[in-house]
From TrEMBL:
Pfam family, one: LD_SV2
Keyword Glycoprotein assigned: yes
Name of the protein this chain belongs to: Major facilitator superfamily (MFS) profile domain-containing protein
Entries under InterPro entries matching the protein: LD_SV2 (IPR055415), MFS (IPR011701), MFS_dom (IPR020846), MFS_sugar_transport-like (IPR005828), MFS_trans_sf (IPR036259), Sugar_transporter_CS (IPR005829), SV2 (IPR022308)
GO terms of molecular function: transmembrane transporter activity
Amino acid sequence: MLAIATAQDSQDYHWAVLVVAWALEAENKLETKVNRERDPRFPAVYESSLTAPDQCLKPLCTFRSPHQDSSGLIVYLGMMVGAVMLGGLADKLGRKKCLIISLAINAAFAFLSSFVQGYGFFLFCRLISGLGIGGSLPIVFAYFSEFLSREKRGEHLSWLCMFWMIGGIFASAMAWSIIPHYGWGFSMGTKYHFHSWRVFVLVCSLPCIASLVALKFMPESPRFLLEIGKHDEAWMILKQVHDTNMRAKGEPERVFTVSYIKTPKQVDEFIEIQSSTGTWYQRWLVRITTTFKQVWDNVLYCLTAQYRMNTLMLAVVWFTMALSYYGLIVWFPDMIRYLQEEAYESRVKIFDDEEVSHFTFNFTLENQIHRNGEYRNDKFIGMKFKEVRFEDSLFEECYFEDVTSRETFFENCTIISTVFCNTDLYEHKFINCRLINSTFLKEKEGCHLDFEEDNDFLIYLVSFLGSLSVLPGNIISALLMDKIGRIKMIGGSMLISAVCCFFLFFGNSESAMIGWQCLFCGASIAAWNALDVITVELYPTDKRATAFGILSGLCKFGAILGNSIFSSFVGITKVVPILLASSALVGGGLLALRLPETREQVL
């Protein structure tokens, strides 16, 4: 379908659409970042900000809990499904309608996830929320691109991509501003707690709600309306665009005209015939099955002879880019945490064969190992244990009250006639211990750490700098996208990113890792922007969102693999992640050079 009108000769009206698209794109990144960020000091709260509810936190208040990875990866799974499903529906039901559906799903379940208490239900909410996030991404690019003229399309789609960065910065800023204040919130009895991490998740759902409201005032894509034969509605929107642009130019007298239109063949007669007969559920069943059949046909169309090679090459480029980028984005903070741990463990203090009796501990013990000690009639009151381990020790007639702990364990200890009152020394912290006549009067619920002290500012800084570092790449790609072309932008950016990966062999300190992370993110963002642009330009209007959804879904599959593979090598070797990322980037970058250039493509 091709429609050329004077309405699209100007670039003024698109700014209104761009503002809404910016909000949508920022929300995509915001929710994605909420689902990925990690905190070394309190993983149960900050791990992807997908914390287990408070009564489920006890097994999670340990470093690198296996629940952490599931909470982050399940959102990518939802995004993968949502991209394919809702992207395909957008080519049949409309861009605006499916965007509203995607945002409503995301907003509802993101909001709900901040209140739920069961861990399984929490993961379910984040899974469905991810479905909405994934669905909105391919639709917003198809929607916005269809309001742009050919000459400035690459540039303005790149400006849209910049709000991926803004969403990341907002998430990092909100995390640092909200999560450390663990006292923010309220409790209802002993079962329901609403703490700072819940406030963070709630705040991060607000931009989605704002985008949903703003989208109600935006028109449907006129290209989509022309594609489905709704010419009158399309003309009204195009005339509105034309009049707005001409008033901005100071030429309100110019008349709206259409130079050429090609009307597509309609294929929905089967639905209309069936809608006149049968019961209401039979009619809905026919409509639903027919719609999904049409979506499936669109998927298969992307693999027909005309588009097969382009689709397969784009799929490889998307996958290699996602595997390396998302893998390294998780690997960087994990490596920084590992370097911090190594430095921390090198300062451990070891106490052997100490004997303490009738002493009151009311201060913090940190980074210590106590072996073969004997503690008789001692009191541990209002204190904190941080990274403390008691091995082969004896506790006799001791009293623990109002004690909080992190990474503290009692191993092979004998504990006799000891009372634990209002502590978070749970059962899993006593490893192969003998407890004789000991009493647990009350246990703390949730993780009760002082966030102001325990949260490591460096991790928030890493997240913030990683988001901010893409700004130069965003600006450069926007200014050069329509000058040097999409193909050179993708190939050059991926090859430069591969070179950056090799320098990671020299990243043996926290500052070096942060620097290389910023350089890698800044170099790779141009490839992401160009991939988004070329994907919407390679396919016709009635297949555009479907194709973008398929490739975006494959991208999330690469993200899942990258997260899983790269994180498994932390503390083991740097060689495999670096070689895997650089090889994927080189292979994807060279293959991208074989794609057709789309700068002159008319949508």
